Amino acid sequence: MVDHERGSSPIALITGAGRGIGLEVCRQLAQRGMTVILTARDPGKAEAAARRLAGEGLDVRPQTLDIADDESVFRLAAAIEREFGRVDVLVNNAAAYADWSELASTADLQAAEAVLGTTLFGAWRTCQIFLPLVRRSAHGRIVNVSSGAGSHGDQQFGLTTNGGAPASYGIAKAALNALTAKLAAEPGSSGILVNAVCPGLTATAPGMEAMGARPVQQGAASVVWAAVLPDDGPTGGFFRDGRPLPW
Ligand SMILES: NC(=O)c1ccc[n+]([C@@H]2O[C@H](COP(=O)([O-])OP(=O)(O)OC[C@H]3O[C@@H](n4cnc5c(N)ncnc54)[C@H](OP(=O)(O)O)[C@@H]3O)[C@@H](O)[C@H]2O)c1
Prior knowledge:
- It is a single chain.
- This protein has a single domain (about 10-245), classed as NAD(P)-binding Rossmann-like Domain (Rossmann fold).
- Helix content is about 40%, strand content about 15%.
- It has helices spanning about 20-30, 45-55, 70-85, 110-120, 120-135, 165-185, 215-225; strands at about 10-15, 35-40, 60-65, 90, 140-145, 195, 240, 245.
- An eight-stranded mixed β-sheet has the order 3-2-1-4-5-6-7-8, with helices on both faces.
- The radius of gyration is 17 Å and the shape is globular.
- The site of NADP nicotinamide-adenine-dinucleotide phosphate (NAP) has 29 residues, from α1.
């Protein structure tokens, strides 16, 4: 086994990090001195994004990861175990989106299954497969990037707003919050802080600023907060900008 506590920088792994909030989370964690494993399902996208951050003087390594695919997740976990022996920070950022008008009563269930397959089961699979490596960290942190869409407390995008749309995305994020609580409650998570975080409405697609979305740096900072919590920080909660959100 690799002697992982001897003077090496913390190892952070971020899913779905070829663009958007995931990419900016990589930048901010690397700026804090972490070795960041930037993953995307398209290898070219991972390499281009990591090259960009490496050009800023940051220690960012590209890897291919499709969280919907067992083999892909197992392969990467084995490679990281060989190279680093542990993971200190796991950020489950990748998600799939539903049609914005999708209703629970009429949703195409195949499409809904695909949303849950990535957003809930992809994060769940990644947690299961990487947990043995996170348990080897002295300060393990797991951050599940959730959304106010899965909350009763979000007046703009929450579970009971917008006439119930989009259904599968909100259901997947509510379930991701429940997964977070369940994982945090396990005895095997002792010493690991597992939290869900909403980045807030963040401008990661054209036209989002016009909807009042905030800059990607700010959305990512909400996520980074949970990745760098002190050892006596909270676990099993749901937060935005460091403040608890009901769900
Ligand atoms: N932006 C917001 O306003 C907002 C608000 C609340 C919550 N969130 C949450 O924040 C996170 C990031 O959102 P974002 O706005 O940055 O979205 P985004 O730009 O669409 O990023 C989502 C990422 O997930 C990746 N992905 C999808 N399926 C995947 C799979 N099977 N395996 C690996 N990666 C996969 C996508 O990769 P490809 O590039 O290959 O498609 C993409 O990089 C998501 O969890 C989202 O639900 C965002």
